[in-house]
Structure formats: structure tokens, C-alpha cells
Amino acid sequence: MNTRSLSFRLVAWYAGLLTLVFVLLGAVTFAVVANDLESNVRANQMRRAQQIADTLLRGVDRSGEAALAASVEKLYAPAANDRFIRITRGDGHVVFRSGEPRDRGFDPAAVPPPALGSVESERVEPWREVRLPGGAGLLIAAVPHRAASGTLYTVEVGASIAPVETALARLLTVLAVGLPIAVLLAAAGGVFLVKRSLEPVERIARKAEAITQHSLSERLPVASTGDELERLSISLNHMISRLEEAVHGSKRLVADASHELRTPLTVLRGELESLTADPQLTPRLRETLGSLLEEVERLAAVVDGLLALSRLDAGEARSEWVKFDLAQLVATTSDQMSLLAEDKGITIGCEAPRGVVVTGDRARLKQVVVNLLDNAIKYTPNGGAVRLRVARGEGQAVLEVSDTGIGIPREALPHVFERFFRVERSRTREQGGAGLGLSIVKAICTAHGALVEVESTAEQGSRFRIRLPLAGPEPERPVQPQRAAATGER
Ligand code: ADP
Predict the structure, then answer these.
(1) What's the CATH class of domain 6-166?
(2) What pLDDT, on a 0 to 100 scale, did the predictor assign at position 431?
(3) Ligand 1 atom index nearest CA of 427
(4) Is the dihedral of CA 413, 417, 421, 424 positive or negative?
(5) How far is the CA of 416 from the centre of ligand 1 (A)?
(6) Which atom of ligand 1 is nearest to the CA of 461?
(7) What is the DSSP string of 78-92?
(8) DSSP states of 11-23 as a string?
(9) How far apart are CA 140 and CA 156, in angstroms?
(10) 45, 44, 75, 82: which is closest to 57 by C-alpha?
């Protein structure tokens, strides 16, 4: 799970906020319910104590304390109603005290008297909560009453707070179990919603990753939802259009420039060649003209390379595509270039059993063989060996060009197919390379749906391998994504 993803962070925030809100709501509910329940018990006890004082104690002078006790017992039956009632005279004598309640929830004899001196002075606390030794709690309301004779009585009426505590404990359990479940359910809903609303983003990202400089004509999917994502995908599509125009513009510029440069360079070369032929030239001038000619030829090669690359980039028409035997092409090319190798004392071995039929542009694929062979000869010292091999394998034609040359350093391997890349500028400059040969190889391979790989060990040699689809019944094949693997050392 990616904890930095937008969906994870959204759900985490959402679940966090929800937990906070639920906990606050639970706490407020608990406090309100607890307060209500306790107030209710208090109000009931207070009302009863006041009733006893107002009705029964009013006539105590007349009827006597014994009759008062009997009336309280008769009218309120405190033991039967699990209630505590005590009437205390101002001198501390207890006139009436209820018996043990039916549920034995508390012991009335153990209830301590009101605060010291309060029954004598009418300043009794209206409320108190008493915890009895067994753990039972009582809420006791106390009302003072002075009879006409002047005798002071204190009426106390209490009830157990156990039912309130039980109800609150139950509420707490419901909240403790219910809140996490509610948060989990809401978070699950949140995950679903977030995933659903971010799905178009996933689709846009997948498509955007698949768009390369060769597929700039493709566009991102636009969901007509009218939301920010629709706007984003439309804006990105506009950006891709502008990018496409810019890339096309620069490709056109390179193509036009190299095309325009070709004619003057040809003229220049012709002029220089005819000048060199003049027998009256001084040796110094001849040497200068010779090196000028070399530079012009190098320039012409670069311009030709650029033109070839820009044509390949533009995606050449496949009208030139034919079925032909790659092995035969390789063998002929190897023969044609053997002179070049002989000059350096390099032996060329060619293992190309006929019948490896592929479909493609013959001239372009020949260019691939020429470029690879040319490099192999160029970067192999005198007396070395170059080997060409063509074989069939799993629906593919495999072409290998290996040499016993100077090799390519490991750090340069991933870059050899880049345009104008040369391993050591000085070493190839002398040999006339501009760093375009392998990029042309790769561009041709890409256009043919072929894969090109290189393995090399510095000072030991290199091996370039091309895997080209064998010709099928249909001459047309989809062009595969551009890939050039530079695998490790041999
Ligand atoms: P260049 O025209 O300079 O040869 P390439 O694109 O053909 O350019 O090759 C790029 C670089 O890769 C070269 O500069 C060279 O250093 C290296 N290279 C290519 N082929 C070989 C090889 N067979 N052996 C050693 N180095 C090679």
C-alpha cells in the first residue's frame, strides 16, 4: 500500500475526522444522558421530601411522631419501593428510618447522618451523594421543616443510583462498540468513493505514460463528467497537441536543413576534388585541400545521417517493404566490405545459412548491417576478427555482429544508441565517426519492430544482436514499441 498516494491520504484524513466527530458526539451524548438521568432522580427525591415535609410534618404537633412514622410507612412504603427515608428531629433523634429495601441494594442503618450540626440549624445540604461501605451509591435530598411548636425536623429521601449507573454503563458499551463499527463502515465507503472518483486519474496516467514522442498523435481519455478531471484531461490534450506541433516543427527543420545542405556540400566536394587534381598545386596547398575535403566528407556524412534519421522519425511509407532473405543480404554485404577489413588485416567470418526470410525495407536493413560491420571493423585493431551470424529462433531472425575489438566501457553501454554519442570523442573523431551510426541502426530496427541489444567488455570485444520478426503470411506487421536493451558485460 502506498501511504503517500492521494487515495490513502484522503481516506486517512476522512477516517480521522470522522473518528474525532464520532468521539465528540459520543462524549456529548454520554454527558447529556448522564446529567438528565441524575437530574431526574434528584428531582423525584426532592419532590418526595418536600411532600413529606408539607403534608405529614405539618400536623406532627397534633398527631405525634409515632403517627407520623406510621403515615410515612403507609403512604410511601419506602422499603417496598427500594427507597430510603429518614426523619430526624433537631436534637438528633431519628423519628423514622425506612427498613432494608426489597432489592437489598443498601443498608439504611449505614447511611451517615447529614453534615455535623446541620439538622439543628436548618442549614442542611439539599443534595448529597453517599457511597456506602458495600459500594452502593445513594442520591439523598434533604428538606428541613420547623413545626408550629418550634421543633426542627429534617426529612431525607434517597434512592440508589445503581439503575442510573447501569444505564450509563450500557450506553458506554453501545458507544464503545458502535463507534468503531460506524467509523469502519464510513471509511470503507470512503475508500470505495475515493477509488471510484480517482479511477479516471489512473486511466489518464496510464495513457499518458504510453504516449511517447512517436505516438504524439494519440490523446488522453476525456470523461464528460463536467468536473475538474474533465478540464484537466482537456488541458493536457491541448498541451500534447502543442507538443506534437513543436516536435513536428523541429523534425521538419532538421529534415529541411539537412536536405538543403546536401547540394552545396556535393558542389563543394566536387570543386575541392577538381582543385586537388591540378598538377600545379604546391604540396602545402594540396595537403590543405586534402584535409578540407576530409572535413567536407565528414560533414556530408553527418548531413546524410541526419536526413536518414528525420525520414525514419517521420515514419517512412512501407511501399518499399518486400520479403527477402536476410542471410543472403548479410553475406553479400559482408563480401562487399571485406576489402575494408583486409586493409586492416581483420578477418571476417560469416555464418549465414540461407532461408531466414524477413519483411522490410531491404536498403534500410542493409544499412543496419553496413553500420554494424563498419563499427566492428573501425573499433577492432589490426589482426582482429569480426564475425557475422544469422540464425532463426522462435519466430525471429537473429543477426549478430561480434568483434574482438576495443569494446565499450560499461558506463557507456546504455548511451551508445543515442544521437551524437561517442564513447571517447577523440578516439572516434580520428576515425571519422559522428555518433549517428548506431542511432540510425536503432531507428531502422524500431521501424521494423526489431529489438537491438549490445553486450561488450572493454578491451575484449562487442556483440550487437538484432531480433527481427520472421516474415509471416502477411507482409504488414504492427510496429512494436521502441526498445533497445543494453545488457551487461559479456
Ligand atoms: P560513430 O559513427 O562515432 O561510430 P556510432 O553511433 O556508430 O557512432 O557508435 C557510437 C559509439 O559507440 C562510437 O563512438 C563507439 O565509441 C562505440 N562503438 C560502436 N560500435 C562499437 C564497436 N563495435 N566496438 C567498440 N565501440 C563501438
Answers:
(1) alpha beta
(2) 62
(3) 16
(4) positive
(5) 7
(6) 24
(7) TTTTTEEEEEEETTS
(8) HHHHHHHHHHHHH
(9) 6
(10) 75
The neighbour count for residue 366, using CB atoms within 10 Å, is 17
Give ligand 1 pocket residues (Cβ under 6 A).
Answer: 375-376, 379, 403, 405-408, 416, 421-423, 428, 433-439, 462
d(CA 48, CA 52): 6
Residue written as cell 598545386?
281
User: Residue 385: beta bridge partners?
Assistant: 347
DSSP SS3 for 71? helix
**Three cell numbers, residue 380:** 577492432
> How far is the C-alpha of 82 from the C-alpha of 48, rounded, in Å?
14
pLDDT at res. 398: 96
For the chain, residues with pLDDT lower than 70 are: 425-432, 473-490
HSE, side-chain direction, 13 A CA sphere, residue 198: 14
Which atom of ligand 1 is found nearest the CA of 424? 16
> Domain 318-472 classified CATH 3.30.565.10?
yes
Cα(325) to centroid of ligand 1, in Å? 27
The x, y and z cell numbers of residue 77, run together, are: 412504603
How far apart are the C-alpha atoms of 208 and 204, rounded to whole Å?
6
Closest protein CA for atom 16 of ligand 1: 423
- Residue 481 in grid coordinates: 514499441
Domains of the chain, residue spans: 6-166, 228-310, 318-472
Count the alpha carbons within 13 Å of 302 in the hemisphere toward its beta carbon: 18
Query: Which amino acid type is present at position 68?
Result: L
Length of the chain: 490
State phi, psi for 268 to the nearest 5 degrees: -60, -45
**Cα of 27 to ligand 1 centre, how many Å?**
76
CA–CA separation, 366 and 326 (whole Å) = 9
What's the pTM? 0.60
> What is the DSSP-derived secondary structure letter of residue 459?
T
User: What pLDDT sits at residue 433?
Assistant: 74
Does domain 228-310 fall into CATH 1.25.10.10?
no
- Residue 473: predicted pLDDT: 62
Residue 220: burial class (beta carbons within 10 Å; 0-12, 13-18, 19+):
buried
Residue 487's pLDDT is 40
Do residues 144 and 154 make contact, with C-beta atoms less than 8 angstroms apart?
yes
Residue type, 128: R
CA of 362 to the centre of ligand 1 (A): 23
**Which pLDDT value is given to residue 45?**
93
- 6-166 and 318-472 share one fold: no
